[in-house]
Amino acid sequence: MTFITDLDDLIRHHHGDVKKLREIRDTVRHDNFITTDNKNYVESLITMYLKNKPFAKPLPRQQSDTKIELQPKPATSSSDSKSNVAFSFLSNKKLGVLAGVAAAIAIIVIVGFTAINQTGTTDSAVSVTITEPLLVNVDQAVYQRADIISISGNSKSASTQSVELSIENTDGVKIWKENINPKKDGQFSTLVIAGGGGWENDGVYILKATHSDLASEIKFKFFT
Q1: Contact, 165 vs 136, CB < 8 A?
Q2: Which of 120, 133, 160, 170 could form a cystine bridge with 203, CB 3.0-4.6 A?
């Protein structure tokens, strides 16, 4: 008995789903094709009701059926592979972004810490300078003959005495002297012209200030 004959017998005796069996039969007759699921279904009915051996399908047809079932698998594998690649890419991208953010935060922290240290150092230096009991300064580091030297300073002393200012040349000889009464806040200032007796030599000159028991000095260069 052929497969079609057995299929006709199943339909005639109403074994199984007759509607489905008719659709299978029509497909086999017109397209000469049957799916693996339909084939297994018909063979199970033949074995159960007609007591025939399962229909042995030619090898080419089995290979064709096998190919039909295997075709979806590469697509699934490809999809999974793409998903894995996408996931790996996203993971690496996220790790890269996190690493970049961490590096940026580290740089900001280091710069901020350095700035704080620098600010702290500067503030400390300024604080020390301001709290000096007696401070004297000039407006430049180098002068030439006939330049005007601007002298300013501050005294923290409570003494009512005047501040004595003097300049010594390279030989240690006092070549200029002036007494100034500081203001109520301790500030004082004056002007002096670089030149005259004692200013003959080039070199380092010293400006000194004394107020009561306080003393301070600063050096500057002079060129004729």
Answers
A1: yes
A2: 170
